[in-house]
């Protein structure tokens, strides 16, 4: 009689199509199996002979360079045995030499790449392509990223396109962005970042640690991460931040070169971090905060310095108000802090301030910001200031050859407006300010503010300019705890609007409306200025000023026009690499009462649209034509025009060089599209030229079988 033939494995089938469908991972463009933790998946093992009672069959899952059982990085699983580190495995059926096994990983298993080996007796079988990617699982109730609502998971985990809101509180607009978390090499880039983060296995279990590490690695500042930030206006040694339309090109390039990609600004950092979190399975959204306070050094105040013409001065300010700032919210249960702070957590990968020695920010519970619990980890004080600081205006005047500062206004409700994100399942903006703040003036707001102030140290009202020696102390009255709009004796009120569309090449026609509600005869000195500024608040050019004295018989109002000729701004517009906004500042002073009021408004230029022509539906692998049409309705030639287009699952990022487009000219570019994926897909287009940096559009198409 021959000795027992030893049992050998002859093959392993990862049953990719059924597993990925059940795990909502069938979108990933990757050879290997991708599954989510805490949910069963099946593998079929083929053997050299039938399995007998005495045979030993073990599945070994190893993670990392050198997997070891005692470190928890090697899991050795036998069918029907007790679980191992929360993993279990069971025999579904045995048919001849085939065994169908079901594997359930622990709902808090470390996320990452696992290698599967099958051990039978003393034989070890290593399947080719035996790598399994294990992700967070918002569909699993025991996973800390569990999200109950299906439509929300569809949006925050599975949607690979979206919208980032930019502009200014006065004129918000949407910038389409392709997240592309399922595209080739994107998951591998995320796995590379996880390895690079040096997180321990235990930390890889927790989305709080993972999201914090990713917020650090998406910027290049201390760890040669994905993106190099640049706000200088000079991008010749890389790609201008305005020229990206999605994260895919950035992450693919980074994965290929392992070097930081040049360049990003806040919406690019947020777009890429959103891709990374969704790719790893953590629900995530991009959040835009309008009039966002930066670098307030926890004193919850931003000082704005104006000259006596009412023009904003860059040089004196340490802190700034950005027209908008974009960060992300990631969804998770926080196990490291007291109950009640689970749900959305703010994370921010734009490098602004160091946190624990690195440029990283969050996760900060959004509820902690609303409730004023700013002591909670991580970086709640910073996020609180971004949405709650006060803005104080100072006029700088020379007195006996020295700069003196005169306070001309305080705004307590100007920061943190219109906090926005894309709606679930729809292409529209939804305002989530109430998730970050209680209504202005409510009792809850006052309580939240008192709590926050007890952990922060708001300083007295002293200007924080770079010239400490010339500082004039204006009384060390700290902030009142009841915030109110500055009430003036005369009920003075200012409004700034545009009276004509703000088209590049046309005169900019704006108006400052002065209102007075108190009866009587009033004399008002008004100064106004118009400047071009970057979204970070950095002034690029002074365009013009006005100075008038007006008499009002209260209660009444008067509109003072402010008009800027095209020559005053077109040169600047063509020479800067960034999109600029029009900043109008007004200072009014009532002579009789000394009432002072300052108001500023930022507006964006308005552009002609791009139209996309294509069918509403198409079928898989069948070509269709897509045309992009743009008519230059402006009075200026648009020089060096480039059209950037991308359609995930339809065609790769493509650039059309269009040269100069004269006024009135129509340009048409066509592309042949081959859809490779089913369902609702989007095509995104963006036109850039010397004069205009951001005309973009998107259009959806439904792909059927």
TrEMBL record:
Name the enzyme's class. Answer: transferase
PROSITE patterns the UniProt entry points to? TRANSGLUTAMINASES
Record text on cofactor binding: Binds 1 Ca(2+) ion per subunit.
Transglutaminase-like domain segment(s): 258-351
Gene3D superfamilies named in the record: Immunoglobulins, Transglutaminase-like
Sites binding Ca(2+) sit at: 388, 390, 440, 445
Q: Which residues form the active site?
A: 266, 325, 348
Q: Name one GO molecular function term.
A: protein-glutamine gamma-glutamyltransferase activity
Q: Does the keyword Metal-binding apply?
A: yes
The cofactor named in the record is: Ca(2+)
Q: Does the keyword S-adenosyl-L-methionine apply?
A: no
Which protein family is it in?
A: Belongs to the transglutaminase superfamily. Transglutaminase family.
PANTHER family xref list: PROTEIN-GLUTAMINE GAMMA-GLUTAMYLTRANSFERASE, PROTEIN-GLUTAMINE GAMMA-GLUTAMYLTRANSFERASE 4
Please report the name of this protein according to its UniProt entry: protein-glutamine gamma-glutamyltransferase
Q: Which gene encodes it?
A: Tgm4
């Amino acid at each position: 009689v021959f000795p027992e033939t030893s049992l050998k494995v002859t093959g392993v089938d990862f049953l990719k199509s059924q597993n990925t469908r059940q795990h909502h991972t069938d979108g990933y463009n990757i050879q290997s199996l991708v599954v989510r933790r805490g949910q069963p998946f099946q593998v079929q093992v083929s053997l050299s002979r039938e399995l007998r009672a005495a045979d030993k069959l073990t599945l070994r899952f190893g993670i990392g360079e050198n997997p070891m059982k005692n470190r928890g990085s090697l899991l050795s699983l036998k069918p029907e045995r007790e679980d191992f580190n929360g993993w279990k495995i069971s025999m579904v059926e045995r048919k001849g030499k085939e065994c169908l096994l079901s594997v359930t990983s622990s709902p808090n298993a470390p996320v990452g790449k696992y290698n599967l080996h099958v051990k039978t007796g003393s034989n070890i079988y290593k399947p080719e392509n035996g790598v399994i990617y294990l992700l967070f699982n918002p569909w699993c109730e025991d996973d800390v990223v569990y999200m109950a609502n299906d439509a929300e998971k569809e949006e925050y985990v599975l949607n690979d396109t979206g919208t980032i809101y930019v502009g200014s509180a006065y004129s918000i607009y949407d910038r389409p962005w392709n997240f592309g978390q399922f595209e080739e090499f994107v998951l591998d880039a995320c796995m590379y970042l996880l390895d690079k983060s040096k997180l321990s296995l235990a930390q890889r279990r927790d989305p709080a640690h993972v999201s914090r590490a990713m917020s650090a690695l998406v910027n290049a500042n201390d760890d040669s991460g994905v993106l190099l930030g640049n706000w200088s206006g000079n991008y010749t040694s890389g790609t201008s931040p305005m020229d990206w339309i999605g994260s895919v090109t950035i992450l693919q390039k980074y994965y290929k070169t392992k070097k930081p990609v040049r360049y990003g600004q806040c919406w690019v950092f947020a777009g890429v971090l959103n891709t990374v979190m969704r790719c790893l399975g953590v629900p995530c959204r991009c959040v835009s905060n309008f009039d966002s306070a930066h670098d307030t050094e926890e004193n919850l105040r931003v000082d704005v310095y104006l000259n006596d013409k009412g023009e904003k001065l860059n040089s004196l300010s340490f802190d700034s108000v950005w027209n908008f700032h974009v960060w992300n919210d990631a969804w998770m249960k926080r196990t490291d802090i007291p109950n009640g702070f689970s749900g959305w957590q703010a994370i921010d990968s734009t490098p602004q301030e160091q946190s624990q020695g690195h440029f990283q920010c969050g996760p900060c519970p959004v509820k902690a910001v609303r409730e004023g619990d700013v002591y909670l980890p991580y970086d709640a004080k910073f996020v609180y200031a971004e949405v709650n600081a006060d803005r104080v205006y100072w006029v700088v005047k020379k007195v006996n050859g020295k700069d003196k500062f005169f306070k001309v206004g305080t705004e307590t409700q100007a920061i943190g407006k219109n906090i926005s994100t894309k709606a679930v399942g729809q292409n529209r903006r939804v305002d989530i300010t109430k998730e970050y703040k209680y209504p202005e003036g409510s009792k809850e707001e006052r309580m939240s503010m008192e709590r926050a102030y007890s952990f922060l140290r708001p300083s007295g009202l002293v200007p924080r300019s770079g010239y400490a020696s010339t500082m004039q102390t204006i009384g060390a009255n700290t902030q009142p705890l009841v915030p109110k709009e500055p009430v003036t004796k005369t009920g003075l009120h200012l409004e700034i609007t545009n009276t004509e569309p703000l088209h590049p090449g046309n005169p900019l026609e704006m108006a400052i409306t002065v209102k007075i509600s108190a009866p009587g005869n009033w004399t008002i000195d008004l100064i106004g200025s118009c400047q071009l500024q970057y979204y970070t608040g950095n002034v690029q050019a002074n365009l013009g000023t006005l100075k008038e004295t007006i008499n009002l018989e209260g209660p009444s109002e008067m509109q003072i026009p402010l008009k800027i000729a095209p020559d005053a701004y077109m040169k600047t517009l063509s020479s800067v690499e960034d999109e600029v906004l029009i900043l109008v500042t007004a200072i009014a002073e009532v002579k009789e009462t000394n009432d002072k009021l300052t108001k500023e408004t930022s507006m964006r230029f308005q552009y002609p649209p791009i139209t996309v022509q294509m069918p509403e539906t198409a079928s898989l692998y069948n070509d269709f034509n897509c045309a992009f049409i743009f008519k230059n309705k402006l009075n200026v030639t648009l020089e060096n025009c480039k059209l950037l287009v991308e359609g995930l699952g339809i065609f790769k990022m493509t650039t059309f060089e269009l040269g100069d487009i004269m006024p009135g000219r129509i340009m048409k570019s066509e592309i042949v599209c081959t859809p490779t994926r089913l369902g609702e897909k989007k095509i995104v287009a963006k036109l850039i030229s010397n004069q205009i940096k951001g005309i973009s559009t998107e259009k959806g198409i439904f792909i059927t079988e």
